[in-house]
Every structure is written in structure tokens, then in C-alpha cells.
Description:
Layout: H1 2-12, H2 15-23, H3 25-45, E1 47-48, E2 55-56, H4 58-68, H5 71-86, H6 99-102, H7 107-126, H8 131-157, H9 159-166, H10 171-193
Antiparallel strand pairs: 1-2
Amino acid sequence: MRYTMNSLLKVLYPNRVVEHLNTNSYALDIVKIIMGVVAIFASSQISIPIKPVAITMHSVILCIIAFTYSPRLSFLTILTFIFIGVMGLPVFCKFSSGINYFLGAAGGYYLGFLIGTPVMSALKDKLAENFMNVTIICIIGHTIFYLFGVSWLASMIGLKQAIYSGFIIFIPSGLAKLFVFSSLFSYVKNLRQK
């Protein structure tokens, strides 16, 4: 994890800054949280606007965060993203913000992100990071996302419609994104081990 993040930091910041961050774990954690929040924000804006919940690139970014951050840091990153969005910074889909948006159709998914991403992060520390395990971990995380999302949505539009609109319709794009992430992650990991 540290190798991957430090490589990215060296591209973005001068060596002196990286050296300082390496000796100050608190500062490094803050930088990681900021980078994670920016990445989630960017993924929020890449969307297919269907109702009641848009298809976004959240799942790919959340998998990246889960596999490069600790469970604690991934939780804090998602919590920070949700907090600044609720407080009014337009970080949600289509530059939305505020408590009303969070309490709308997508709110359950954000709560699912808050729980599911650290779970993926914890599981990746316990299992070998091969293609099959990475895929299984991502499926477990996404199951948590959808359990929260569909349950929340069901309180607004009913369970049957929530299962269709909040889960079934996402299956094709979700599987494609999981396959791409698992393949790329396994490929990059194998390259680093050579």
C-alpha cells in the first residue's frame, strides 16, 4: 500500500514534500484522504443519468481505495466525502450537494460505501491478492453497497421496484467494472512482483 501511494505522491509533489510526509503519518493520512475524496468526486461526475439512481464510476474508485488504503483510512475518506457533500460542497452526482440530496434515492448507497469499502479493505489484508480473491472481495463489498442502497430505496418506491431500479439494472455495468478492476489490479500486482 505504501509503495503504491508513495509512487503517486512522487509524481504529484516534490521529493522534499514526500520525504516529509513519509516521516509524518498524520500528514500523509490527510493527503490520502484528500486524494480519495477528489477521486470519488470525479467518479461521481462520470454518470449515466437514469432514475431513480444514476450509474456512476463510484464502484471502480471505491475498489481502488479499498485495495490501497487501510480499513480505517478508507472509512475516513468516505465519511469525509459524505460530510462535505452534506455540508454543501457540490461533490455528489451532477455537482449536487446538501442534506436533501443525501436523504434522497442515493443516500443508502453512500451509507453502503461507508461500510462496504472498509470491509473490502480488511478482507484484502487477509486474503492473497490474486484475480479470484480480488473479484470475490469486490463482490462482497458491492453486496453491502446494494443491501444498503436497495433497502433505503425500498422505503421510497417499494421493495419490488427498488430491487429492479436499484440493483438489477446495475448488474451488467457493475460486472463489467468489477472484471476490469480485478484484471487490472492483478496485472499490476504481477508486474510489481517480477
